[in-house]
Design brief:
CATH superfamily of one domain in chain A: P-loop containing nucleotide triphosphate hydrolases
CATH superfamily of chain B: Ferrous iron transport protein A (FeoA)
Oligomer: heterodimer
CATH architecture of one domain in chain A: 3-Layer(aba) Sandwich
Helix content of chain B: 10-25%
CATH topology of chain B: SH3 type barrels
Radius of gyration of chain B: 11 Å
CATH topology of one domain in chain A: Rossmann fold
Number of strands of chain A: 9
Distance between the termini of chain B: 12 Å
CATH architecture of chain B: Roll
Strand content of chain B: 35-45%
Strand content of chain A: 5-15%
Largest interface: A-B, 39 and 34 residues
């Protein structure tokens, strides 16, 4: 099968084009680097199937961020048959900069000149014939959002698959050209993972990855050292030469109006990024998003799901009993499976609504403004403005939240953003709060919830400040962020994105959480003959063993302990386990009554502090391991929030007791 | 003068980027290299916002003070 790679700047409409080409479930984003994973799809043309890979949106193919590395690695090592380079017609120079790098790599490039309608609005005229002539590759004008020019693009793409790419000889001026040749000859004596000429060019650009590769090659290294000693640095000259090349082309092929046209984006930005209104509007938007999420997702839709699961449980129980199933099977299916997984599915509507709103914020282009507005506050505590985007995503789930930190190019910024993300209270922790609010604060639910979330944010900022002063000293990286034009989000784009995330959650509920619940069930019925979920079961003994640790925090019962223990596997399990050990049910009024009986208001508050802040779930710890590539940081992620949460919970309980609560 | 000192709506041309560490190359790659023309859109608090042929870029104040420009 032939493989086609899609490459382009962030916000060039690349993902939209990918969706149009493949019709797959893909997401359209507006903040840089939203396509962090390699996404694949395929389309059929004249009976043949073509594989399409959507590479992360990048401005360049350097080695700064992981996105750039992923993209260029795929182009060099993945050997795609064709690279479709999506170029934003309204911003042709910067987009063609990436094109020059693709051509340098010798890729088989076709240019999709996208957003031609927006270019027209801005009175920008581009001659595709002249551009194609100048670049030496086919150029097809497209409007991906309106599905225009797609047929032509596919035809041309299929056409050039069989052709060899035209070798384009770039010149960076005599001096640099000669130096590239010198280095190339030295490199050719070694065994290389990349073409020698391209590596030589990248070495002169001080590319970190290349410098690592040649670390053991003595001749090459000596040569580079000599250059450095003589203060020869071509890094920026090469960028300038590429831009000179691009500007030359643009002069011949593009006509622009002398004065920039004032767009709707400019007018909207006057208000949304204004000094006076920017922050209050941002606060209001976030407040509305959460308020609507809880009202629509939890109060309104959540009830239906709960009722449905209840009926389903009764139905299955009846069926099992009619079939004469043994008691243990009935117990496992009803309490373990339906009870556990059901307790999680109740929150699907909530997550659905939250992701719906977050997708709208992304697709309109507002997220980039949010990062801009928050940069000042974030910087005051030693964090980067973009960190805030990963924090907002963390409200849904900390796993994508941590993955969203990939857009931070500086290691220090990224590590801090990862380590504080779990304090952003994820969707799975919400059920715990809701149950305790129903038990102790039925009249002030909204306020209590707000305080819990605010405490999470405050701890994240505080720990960020501490980390930036201790573990990760040094300057925070500079803030550079594109503010893309506002666009109306497409309904299909938003729904696709929402569905993808919800499906991911449901799949997790069906697999990981099911496995956790099943394991807990097994622990709860062993050794043979004990009352299920009693203190004599293995589960009960684990709880009894760790309970004394929580006594100073006011909830040193084996039941509370075992639910916290289960929460490390998956936060959703906390409520499920509380339900099992207290009431033999997973939700509803019986559980609330049981909790009222075994917690005081004060110990409930300290328990909430604990569940908000303690060790994140196994999936998060595994993600930290994956993203930092370090067991040490994964272990740190597991331990430090626990210590912090325990200390705070103890303080809350002890101080509260002294004050007579 | 430096970019962070340019007033709102004023146009300028980049002379060079001094220091700024690795961000310097990123700026160059985004088209803020010597000779690039741009317009200041917003310069009051936090990062500045500039426009290059109608495209907006927010740049941290610290970094903007490393960018030497000349008025048109």
């Amino acid at each position: 099968m032939q493989t086609i790679a899609l490459v382009g700047n962030p916000n060039s409409g690349k993902t939209t084009l990918f969706n149009v080409l493949t019709g797959s479930n893909q997401h359209v984003g507006n903040w840089p680097g939203v396509t962090v994973e390699k996404k694949e799809g395929s389309f059929k043309h004249k009976g043949a199937v073509y594989n399409v890979v959507d590479l992360p949106g990048t401005y360049s193919l350097g080695a700064y961020s992981e996105d750039e590395l992923v993209a260029r690695d795929f182009i060099v090592k993945g050997n795609p048959d064709v690279v479709i380079n999506v170029v934003d017609a309204t911003n042709i120079e910067r987009n063609l900069y990436l094109t020059t790098q693709l051509l340098e790599m010798g890729a088989n490039v076709i240019v999709a000149l996208n957003m031609m309608d927006e270019a027209e609005l801005k009175k920008i005229k581009i001659s595709t014939e002249a551009l194609s002539e100048a670049l030496g590759v086919p150029v097809i004008s497209t409007i991906a959002a309106k599905k225009k020019g797609i047929g032509e693009l596919i035809e041309s793409t299929v056409d050039i698959i069989s052709q060899k790419p035209r070798q384009i000889v770039f010149t960076y001026g005599n001096e640099i050209d000669n130096e590239i040749l010198n280095l190339r000859d030295l490199l050719k004596e070694e065994s290389l993972p990349y073409p020698a000429g391209w590596m030589a060019l990248k070495l002169l650009e001080s590319d970190k990855e290349m410098l690592l590769i040649v670390d053991g090659m003595k001749k090459v290294k000596d040569h580079l050292d000599t250059l450095r000693l003589n203060n020869v640095d071509y890094e920026l000259d090469i960028v300038d030469k590429r831009y000179a090349y691009v500007n030359g082309i643009s002069k011949r092929c593009v006509e622009k109006p002398d004065e920039e046209i004032v767009t709707a984006t400019d007018k909207i930005d006057k208000v949304l990024t204004s000094r006076l209104f920017g922050l209050p509007i941002f606060g209001l938007i976030m407040f509305l998003v959460f308020q609507l999420t809880f009202v629509i997702g939890s109060d309104f839709l959540g009830g239906y799901v709960e009722t449905a699961i209840g009926y389903f449980g009764v139905l299955v129980e009846g069926l099992l009993l009619t079939l004469g199933s043994p008691d243990w099977l009935v117990s496992f299916v009803i309490e373990g499976f339906i009870g556990g997984v059901g307790a999680v599915l109740v929150f699907v509507p909530l997550i659905m609504v939250l992701y719906f709103f977050l997708a709208i914020l992304e697709d309109t282009g507002y997220m980039a403004r949010a990062a801009y507005i928050m940069d000042g506050i974030m910087r005051a505590v030693g964090l980067h403005g973009k960190t805030f985007i990963s924090m907002i995503v963390g409200f849904g789930c900390n796993v994508p939240g941590i993955m969203a930190t990939r857009t931070l190019e500086n290691k220090k910024d990224r590590m801090i953003a990862i380590l504080i993300n779990p304090f952003m209270s994820c969707g799975a922790r919400l059920p715990i709060y809701l149950v305790f609010i129903a038990a102790f604060f039925p009249n002030n639910g909204g306020l209590v919830l707000f305080i819990i979330y605010a405490l999470g944010i405050a701890m994240a900022l505080l720990m960020g400040k501490i980390f930036s002063k201790t573990l990760f000293k040094g300057e925070s990286s500079h803030f550079i962020m594109e503010l893309p034009p506002y666009r109306l989000p497409s309904a299909s784009g938003v729904l696709r994105d929402m569905w993808e995330k919800v499906w991911d959650f449901v799949r997790r509920a069906g697999t990981v959480i099911f496995a956790v619940v099943a394991l807990l069930w097994v622990l709860s019925v062993l050794p043979m003959g004990v009352e299920p979920y009693s203190q004599e079961s293995i589960l009960g003994r684990i709880g009894t063993f760790i309970a004394p640790m929580f006594a100073p925090a006011g909830f040193g019962t084996w039941q509370a302990s075992v639910s916290l223990f289960a929460g490390i596997a998956a936060k959703e399990a906390v409520v499920a386990v509380l339900g099992m050990v207290y009431a033999g049910v997973s939700e509803g009024s019986e559980l609330v009554t049981a909790i009222q009986g075994s917690f005081t208001t004060l110990s409930a508050v300290s328990f909430l502090v604990m569940t908000l802040l303690y060790t994140p779930c196994a999936a998060v710890i595994a993600t930290v391991k994956k993203e930092t590539n370090s067991y040490k940081w994964a272990a740190f992620m597991a331990i430090y929030p626990f210590v912090l949460a325990w200390v705070l919970a103890v303080i809350v309980y002890q101080v509260g007791s002294l004050m007579g609560f | 003068m430096v970019l962070s000192g340019v007033k709102k709506n004023d146009k300028c041309r980049i002379k060079q980027v001094v220091g700024g560490g690795y961000a310097r190359k990123r700026l160059y790659e985004l088209g803020l290299n010597s000779g690039a023309e741009l317009k200041m859109v917003k310069n009051d608090f936090g990062p500045i916002i500039i426009s290059m042929s109608g495209h907006k870029l927010a740049i941290g104040r610290g970094l903007a003070s490393h960018i030497e420009v000349e008025k048109e």
